[in-house]
Design a protein that fits this description.
alpha+beta, five-stranded mixed sheet, 47% helix, 16% strand
């Protein structure tokens, strides 16, 4: 009856009771509790750990908001800032700054601060001339009137042809066009689909002349109707908990209004001024085309005349609408999952492949262990069973004949050690990033957080790379320890940095806003040299100080001759087979990832992605193990590099599927620059995936 009234205090008291109960049950002389079994009693170290946890729970448990995503309230008539961002297109990989086109600009354009992740992705924001005040509707507000030359109009037309869209945001919410669709089998059930930003222009119609020439006419979206959804903050509790010393105090509510939606509807209107135009009349200039409360008089669209140019009047509306959407649910429209059945189908497909491979691996181990155990039970076997045992030994004599060569060092052993360390580093980075994503720390509302976490975990996992590279350097008896450590610290980063720098130069030459400033590039390199490289050397120091691995067999002094192999044991064929099954487990999620990149949507299926990623790792390990077993059974002991390439061959299928996706998506707008950018970044991703999955396959075979 005396439980705390707030959830935070309830959680605190519940944890306290659990810890006290654990302490009491761990003590043999606790009155009122049964004496525990000696084997189950808590050790002194465990008791000390529980006491530390109990001490840490002395205060109240408070919730907190991640930086940059805390709710912000606005009072009535308080100005809200509409920020402009970038111009993006599903037909091209080049993105441009909003003011790259001659839109209306305020007197003083201020660049808003950005973090490292936003700088690397080119997600820049600026102030705009749009004026909006909380809960105050405004219609047919004039932004500016500009006269464009033929060249400027042609630039607008080029962006309209490539379906470029302008991105904006308000209170950290991206502007979007919202459309409702109904299901064919359930007409009463509708679903909302969003498209980020609004189109610069669109094609009006085509004219076919007598000489079969086609003239396309485009219109310019020069009027924007912003629909801003708000929710009264009186319905939302404050983030801070009430005073623990006064549990009877009433809960505190926020004041003002919360912005929970930001929608836009573009229009193309050729405005007509009333009387002579006066530049100082904005934003309340009188126009014949504007009626009351957002209505328009009959008008023609604003045509884009790329031959003569023209004059354009830019206008906008501000509509406020009360919404029942809570602040915590305002991102649901962007992160709504409309095709979860496809993801579940992908997971079921992956599980089927996993079960199939697991059965094969179980059969291999059962066969090997059964024959080894039969050696010790030969006296208990009948004559028929002994004959069967001899036949099985003849069939399995292949891998036993090469037991003295399987641990012979491969060619370029130092490079294999380097790639193994780098693969472990990438694996740790991927697992930690997915864990943070599943916990909600990498929400799209926290801009740049995904890129920041990838860089952070990659740099911090340098110690794992150095340790594993050093351990395998010991196995291969490499003498150049410093060289191996330096290659581990710099080889992968060096290749990616060179490709990134080359692509950045191309993007910069095209005038794209996604070009990373030189100062940001230097900052990333500094983080690498001052964090990742020292940690790699520290991990290598620990690895070289550790005792070397002891192999169960001794390597022969003279290498055994490898007999001629069957055609199906060819290295290239083994790689193709090894990569096909893991790719079949992930291609559905890969399709959604590439589609979200092309359509500029938010990918937030990290739960599905994490599960599929774990299944992928297990499948890579099992298929590489099976192929390695078949290889040594064929008396081929050169398994080191083959296991690495078999594990990493999934990246080849990913690269091929990425190329198909690019051609299918942008077949009518393929350009050299866009292709270089797309395949450059896709190559970096596939290269990292190749090293990571190759390491998984190699380590599995090494343990086997």
């Amino acid at each position: 009856c005396l439980l705390p009234t707030t959830p935070n205090q309830q959680l605190t008291e519940a944890l306290r009771y659990l810890v006290v109960g654990a302490l009491l049950t761990s003590s043999p002389s606790s009155p009122g509790f049964p004496r525990p079994h000696p084997s189950r009693s808590m050790s002194p170290a465990g008791q000390a750990a529980v006491l530390v946890v109990l001490a840490l729970l002395g205060g109240s448990v408070d919730a907190f908001y991640l930086p940059g995503v805390a709710p912000r309230t606005f009072r009535k008539d308080q100005p809200v800032n509409i920020k402009v961002q970038t111009l993006v297109s599903p037909e091209s990989q080049l993105q441009f700054d909003f003011y790259q086109l001659p839109f209306c600009r305020p007197k003083h354009v201020r660049d808003l601060p950005e973090n490292l992740g936003e700088a690397l992705t080119g997600d820049k924001a600026h102030t705009s001339g749009f004026v909006a005040k909380m809960k105050k509707n405004a219609y047919c507000q004039t932004l500016c009137r500009r006269t464009y030359s033929a060249k400027q109009m042609e630039e607008f037309q080029d962006f309209a042809i490539l379906d470029y869209r302008a991105n904006m945001r308000l209170d950290n919410l991206p502007v979007a066009q919202i459309a409702k669709y109904a299901y064919d089998d359930q007409p009463d059930k509708t679903i909302q689909i969003y498209n980020l930003g609004f189109p610069i222009g669109s094609k009006l119609h085509e004219e076919v002349h007598s000489d079969d020439a086609v003239a396309e006419h485009y219109v310019l979206n020069n009027h924007l109707r912003f629909k801003i959804l708000y929710h009264p903050a009186a319905d939302e509790l404050q983030a801070d908990a009430p005073d623990p010393s006064n549990p009877d105090a009433p809960p505190q509510y926020m004041k003002g209004n919360l912005i929970v939606g930001f929608e836009v509807i573009p229009y193309s209107i050729q405005h007509k001024e009333v009387g002579k135009w006066n530049e100082t009349c904005a934003p309340n200039c009188k126009l014949h085309t504007c009626a009351d409360r957002g209505a328009f008089t009959p008008h023609t669209p604003q045509m884009i005349d790329a031959k003569k140019g023209g004059t354009v009047v830019w206008t906008y509306d501000i509509e406020w609408q009360k919404s029942d959407v809570k602040w915590a649910s305002r991102w649901d429209v962007y992160l709504n999952m409309t095709d979860d059945k496809v993801h579940w189908f992908s997971i079921i497909n992956s599980v089927v492949i996993l079960v199939f491979l697991s059965a094969i691996v179980a059969m291999i181990f059962t066969r090997v262990l059964r024959n080894d155990l039969n050696r010790y039970n030969e006296a208990l076997l009948s004559d028929e069973e002994k004959a069967q045992q001899q036949q099985d030994l003849k069939e399995e004599s292949g891998w036993k004949l090469v037991h003295g060569d399987v641990f012979r060092s491969p060619p370029m052993a130092g490079l294999l050690a380097v790639y193994t360390g780098t693969g472990v580093q990438l694996l740790f980075m991927a697992l930690m990033t997915l864990c943070c994503s599943c916990l909600g720390f990498l929400s799209p509302s926290n801009r740049g957080s995904l890129m920041n976490s990838v860089l952070l975990f990659f740099f911090l996992s340098g110690a794992f790379a150095g340790y594993f590279a050093a351990r395998f350097c010991q196995i291969f008896k490499e003498e150049s320890k410093l060289k191996i450590t330096m290659l581990t610290a710099l080889s992968f980063q060096g290749v990616c940095s060179l490709v990134f720098l080359a692509l950045n130069v191309i993007v910069w030459a095209e005038g794209s806003s996604s070009a990373v400033p030189f100062g940001t590039f230097i900052a990333v390199m500094a983080l690498s040299f001052f964090i990742s490289v020292p940690l790699t050397f520290f991990g290598a120091y620990l690895g070289f100080r550790s005792a070397p691995f002891e192999f169960p067999t001794r390597t022969n002094a003279i290498p055994r001759q490898i007999p001629p192999q069957k055609w199906y044991m060819d290295r290239f064929l083994s790689m193709m087979v090894a990569g096909l099954l893991p790719f079949g487990a992930v291609f559905v999620e890969l399709f959604f990832i590439l589609s979200s990149i092309w359509q500029h949507r938010f990918y937030y299926f990290f739960g599905f992605l994490s599960l599929v990623f774990l299944i992928l790792l297990v499948i890579c390990a099992e298929i590489t193990l099976v192929l390695c077993y078949l290889q040594v059974c064929a008396e081929d002991y050169k398994w080191w590099w083959r296991s690495f390439f078999c594990g990493g061959s999934t990246a080849l299928y990913m690269m091929a599927y990425g190329a198909y996706h690019y051609i299918a998506r942008a077949h009518h707008a393929i350009s050299v620059t866009s292709s270089l950018i797309y395949f450059g970044y896709l190559g970096i991703i596939c290269y990292a995936f190749f090293v990571m999955t190759g390491t998984v396959g190699f380590l599995t075979c090494f343990v086997f």
